[in-house]
Please model this.
Amino acid sequence: MSGADPAAEAAALRAELERANRAYYELDAPEISDAEYDRLFRALQALEAAHPALATADSPTRRVGGAPAEYLPKARHAVPMLSLDNAFTTEELRDWHQKLVRLDGRVAEAALALEVKIDGAALSLTYEDGILVRGVTRGNGTEGEEITANVRSIGDIPLRLDGSDWPARLEIRGEVYIGRAAFARVNRDREARGLEPLQNPRNAAAGALRALDPAEARRRRLAFFGYQVVVLDGTAPADTHDGMLAALARWGVPVEPHHVVVDGIDDAVAACDGWATRIRDLAFDADGLVIKINDLAVQVELGVVGNRVPRWAIARKFPAESAFTRLLDIEVNIGRTGALAPTAILEPVRIGGVTVTRATLHNEDVIASRDVRIGDVVEVIRSGDVIPKVLGPDRSRRTGAEVPWQPPTHCPFSGTLLVRPEGEAARYCPDPRCPGRAYEQLVHFVSRAGLDIEGLGPERVRQLLDAHLVRDAADFFTLTADTLRELEGFADQSAAALVQAIAAARERPLHALLAALGIRHVGATAAKLLARRFGTLDAIREATAQDLEALDGIGPAISGSLREFCEDPGTAALLDRLRALGVAQEEAGVQADGPRPLDGQILVLTGTLPTLSRAEATQRIEAAGGVVKSAVSRKTTAVVAGSEAGDKLAKAEALGIEVIDEAELLRRLDRAE
Ligand code: IVH
Model:
């Protein structure tokens, strides 16, 4: 870019940064890596420093990023919520310190507080007389979004502070995050519900905080670490940063335990070096350390730069989890639903202690929009256990020999013409018997989202496929201990155990089989609806599109792909075999032909019912053909209200919707039994 018109260059950088900010903060879907963002940010900073006339008041270098979402009430911060400047190297860390020493000689001897930089979403909590009264996101630093209801659903955050030495009004600031294990669980649950997996814990946390439904916030298992106290009214509990952290801990606020105070910059540098390789081993995502002047009075005197970052703190970032390497080729695989899955074949590269040779390229739209070409040097990231991803090419390293990628027109496994449904980002191989799909399908079939066969993981499935013992899902049920014993890694006991686990899977309910089959659009929710309504696999196979779509929650996409699955000779033969083998043919407790007096009715439960738990009520309503929804709308048939019914009751009354009690619900259900 050098030599170009600096004004045009600044405008281009600004536009790119604004776009990245929007994707990150407002859409919770980052488009570029943090490292790339930092590069652009620094380039713009340097340009503005060299040409002060170019520094516009609304430049991204002057703000924290992200506007409050339209749909949430806005709230102004009493004291701005700042961002942090970054130091990517030891030199940059020492430079920061040097500058402070020049500003204020006392810094040379000042103690430094070091703590983990948690990679989540910043949150401000206001407590009055020890009671949580408000939760607000950072937003643009000056104004955030009021999300008190969601904040109350975070178990880590005390609704009332312990002890009594808290100021009458204070703000506790900290980071909301999702631990790695919890994140994996959230994605497994989402998969079981037929939802797209979330991209990463940070965006999942930010999205959950701003979700409209506190239940969604709860489902994402958010956690919190406090790192700052802002006294609004009353006396500060300490005059050092570590004193404040100790106060937070006394009040029952979780504080990340690895914080230390060191004597000066040399010790801080040594401590940072010690963390560089360990930071990714924490149970949550962290991308560096924060170094702060420990003395709060000195902090106040050092102040803030441009309303954006404090002088008294800096983030020492360890961006080592991404690396650049050459994209040698793009291999095409077929996912379990038939979607084309482009995979990057990479020149081996070490990332976070692991050699990476393959990474996902998501789908063809991502390849096109990021202009990824074969031969490019690409940035690859790896976080935790997640599959490595290609972020994008380094365009400055192009030689001209790079070749744009063309997605194939035909499936490389079955030779079938690929199709791309309107509005979808991927092409599909429409052949349900495509051998490319078999592996992924079989892995899904036996996974927890499917028939949940213990002892059958991806590697075992691969082994069985390679040994030609299994070609489709029905083949699992023909395996004997004798054949398994022939395979590497099986002993008498393990072979017998697996055969037993497979036999047990025959007794699974029909909905598990439906979800296991990996029929496009039929996730766990649709599978349950169908199984409860129709009761047996035979009944589902006989149902017409009209019968299927009569169910609330089943639309033309689901019914279409289900009909197709039942009618295709290949998959119909698979269903016949599964039937002959007696695999999961029925949904317990459903009488397919029984009376279903709540057919098509939409009920909403609110308050505490005198005898039925919410789960029991839901199960009985669904068994009678009804649907339970969480929100009242004009489509609601009736609201079942118990004691302490809240807003839903008021809304039902406002919309003129019938309100019934448990006794009436039971009367209506009884007509079913
Ligand atoms: S102090 C005025 N301490 O990092 C200083 N921030 O990149 C404000 N963060 O907005 C922040 N861990 O959301 C501080 N131990 C920590 C932190 C931390 C994570 C986040 C915070 C901040 C962002 C800046």
Remarks:
- The first strand starts at residue 74 and ends at 76.
- The chain has six domains: 6-62, 86-317, 321-397, 435-505, 510-580, 602-672.
- The two ends are 75 Å apart (CA to CA).
